[in-house]
Amino acid sequence: MLLLKLLLTPLLTLGVTLAARIWGHRVSGWLTALPIVAGPIMAVLIVEQGSAFAIDAAIGTLITLPALAGYIIAFAYLAQRSNWLICLLGAWAVFFALAAPLSQIAANAHQALAAAWLGLGIAYVATPNPRTRTGPVHVPRIEIVLRVAAAVALMLIITYGAQTLGASLSGLLLSFPIGGSVLPAFTRALHGVDATEHLLRGFIAGLIPFPLFFYGLAAGLPLAHPAIVFSAALGALLASHFLVIVAARRRRSG
After folding, report:
1. Cα 19 → chain centroid
2. Residue 74 C-alpha from the chain's centroid
3. In the chain, at which end, N or C, are there fewer CB atoms within 10 A of the end residue's CB?
4. Distance of CA 83 to CAs 58, 77, 180, 196, Å?
5. What whole-number distance in Å separates Cα of residue 215 and Cα of residue 201?
6. How many domains does the chain divide into?
7. Smallest Cα–Cα separation from 58: which of 174, 156, 161?
8. Contact yes or no for 201/214 (Cβ under 8 A)
């Protein structure tokens, strides 16, 4: 499991950084929302801990996603007047202040999904729109190296916590923004406020379909073989991402 995350975390960070070079900060933020790390972690939890533990972890992730929404809102508004470190520490404080009580709520999969989408919907409306258009970004090699190193360090901290805590708190840590911490911090420090807003707007837009994956696991694991459920949940997530992209392109062209 650790080896898997050690490979996936730097690859994800590298991939979304290179995406910013080609398509801009907003697409980079969108890709950050894909469960490239959380998905394999859930697969390992199913194998190692069993379906019951994975169901509780999936619900724990869903119920704490409003805390991630609070993190995004806080970072976006702090970025308008503060440096990257204050943005990051302030947004982390908001995340844990919301996630701690949320993780104690007893909810079923349907209720947790509703809570997740409510929080993400509020974040989508509340996150400020940048004043400039996004485009290809020059990212120096040293910045790429530092981004990858920071992401791996943060992942190791979260991994240690998830291995020593129960299912609900493991779900909380799965909702913690690893890429969503590293990329906005570097973007705010090196590319400014508008670039950070583009990144966060892409991040929150990409997160809208994100709960479907965890909901599919929580609702489907009691009913079918884990491999079938996992494949169906991942397929539903990717299909919903495709539909959102198509809808966004039609809205821009219209």
Report:
1. 17
2. 15
3. C
4. 34, 11, 16, 12
5. 23
6. 1
7. 174
8. no
